Each structure stands twice: as structure tokens, then as C-alpha cells.
Amino acid sequence: MPRIIDCPETAPLELGDVIAALNDPAFDPADEDSFAAAGVLLKGLAANRQFLADIAVAELKDRCVRQTRENKYSSQVIMLHRASEKYFIRANFWPSPRDSLFKASGTSPFFYHVPHDHNFSFLTVGYLGPGYWSDYYEYDREGVVGVPGEKVNLRFVEKAKLDLGKVMLYRAHRDVHDQLPADEMSISINIMEASPRQPFLDQYRFDVKRCEIAEILNRTATEALLAIAATQTGGNARDLVESFAAHHPSERIRFAALRELAAAAPGVDEGLAVLDRGAASPSPFIAAMSVREIARVQAGRGWLER
Ligand SMILES: [Fe+2]
User: 66 C-alpha to center of ligand 1: Å?
Assistant: First the structure.
């Protein structure tokens, strides 16, 4: 369950005031207490009932140039501030099943009914509407290898919604929620932890009935490019994939490189030999993922060798 940050009612803050406070070097979103202490800033921003509409109108007048440049999310999100590698601020729209947007798009663009943790911490506040619902869970990340199908000690905490003005701190790799549609169109505002290492930290989707990791949710461009580079011969592209497989600090990237080297091998047996190297890895993640991949290749062998 995210940590509920009890904040007194405060005077409205301008977005610029919040940014100035967060730019203080003492603010460290990787430190739980430092991040929680920023909750009062978000509470003050939520008390400002005008700033978000002003930003939305300004963006529309400017053909959303800034959103196109800075917003990597869908149109569910308005990026409000992104200027440092430490944090960014965004607003999120949470349609209800009665909204035409929901009827047209379904649940998946809004991440409803997808139990997940986060590979970052974030502060959130209910800004408009009754707020999205969540079934909240917690789990202990320590000792988790991160392989789909792995059992984790997922514990249901409660079903709750992000009420207007409620401030919560979602803790990275600990709080899990199965997000459910808001009863009415709602908006939340987040201060998000950011860091260059984030793309390499894994975020999971869970099977909450089986208390299992269902899949790793995050992907990077690196993984896609490794698949291409592994097929390139005659240059140093393949050397690079070999180097990533051996030395990349992220286990997920090391395994991806190994998997692509195997996929690019001239025959199934040569590919399986590459994966055997992975199965003998001292990294439990790479070893387990390699064993899974070996089983997958062997299951499809008849089709692969046609
Ligand atoms: Fe989430």
C-alpha cells in the first residue's frame, strides 16, 4: 500500500514555486523520507485550481509543441515539467467507463486491470474527480529473481481510491496496484522520481491470483537494437552484442544480448549452445531466463527447422 502522506490544508502554490523547491539539492526522490516531505508541495499545487487548465490552453495554443518534445506518454498524460534527471511532474487523466474515451479505447491505454509495481517512486495527489480505484498489494523485492512465473509474497492490503487532495507515495519495487477505473473522469498529479538507471530497473506485471510475476513490463530501445545488431556480420556490431552479453551492468540487457546472439546463430543447435552458456551463468536471472528460452526454442524446433 503506498504511504499516505498526511498534509495539512495549505495555500495554493504555483507550479514554479513547486519546481523551485524541488530543485533544492537537498531534495532526493531516491530517499523515501525526503520524497515524502515533498508531499506538502504537491498538496499545495493541488490547491491551485487554475494552473492545469492554463497549461492545457497554452499547450493547445502552441499546437502542443512542448508535449510532442517532452512527453513520451500517450495523450492520457500532460507533461508539466521536465528539466532534470532527478524528477519530473505530470498530470494524468483517468476516464470512467461512462466516458466516450473509455468506450472507444477500452481499458488498456489507461493501464486498468494490469496489476503492476513501479521501477521508480512517485508522489501522487487527487486533483479532480473522485479518483481512480486500486486493489493495493505489497511484496518484498529482496530475493526476487525476476523471472515470469516466479512466486512472490504478494499481500493484499486494501481497495482504495485516490480521493481529491489525498497525497500518497508509491514506493519503487514494493507497492503494487491493480488499477481500476474511476467512477467519474478524474485527474491525478505526480512528482515522479527519474534517474538514468531507471530503464534498466525492472517493472513487473503480476498474476495476483497465483501470486506470481506474470511478465517484465519495461523494454528499452537497446533490446530492439541488439536484435538487429546480432544479425550484422562483417562489422563490429556483433562484437558489441557479445560485449553487452558479457559485461552490461543490467542482467536484463545481458540476457537480451545472449538471446539475440542465439536467435542470430546459423542453426538451432548453435543457438542452443549460446543459450547453454546463459544457463550456466552465475546470475540467477540470466540462468533462469536462458533455461526458459531453451525450452521455448526446443518447443518450436520443428517449426524453426522447416
Ligand atoms: Fe501504477
Answer: 24
Reduce the secondary structure of the chain to three states and give it as a string. CCEECCCCCCCCCCHHHHHHHHCCCCCCCCCHHHHHHCHHHHHHHHCCCCHHHHHHHHHHHCCCHHHHHHCCCCCCEEEEEECCCCEEEEEEEECCCCCHHHHHHCCHHHCCCCCECCCCCEEEEEEECCCCEEEEEECCCCCCCCCCCCECCCEEEEEEECCECCEEEECCCCEEEEEECCCCCEEEEEEEECCCCHHHCCCEEEECCCCEEEEECCCCHHHHHHHHHCCCCCCCHHHHHHHHHHHCCCHHHHHHHHHHHHHCCCCHHHHHHHHHHHHCCCCHHHHHHHHHHHHHHHHCHHHHCC
pLDDT in tens, 6-61: 999 999 999 999 999 999 999 999 999 999 999 999 999 999 999 999 999 999 99
User: pLDDT by residue (tens digit) across 68-96?
Assistant: 998 888 889 999 999 888 999 999 999 99
Is the pLDDT confidence value at 234 over 90? no
CATH number 2.60.120.10 is the correct assignment for the domain at 3-216: yes
Distance 267 CA to ligand 1 centre (A): 41
CA of 147 to the centre of ligand 1 (A): 20
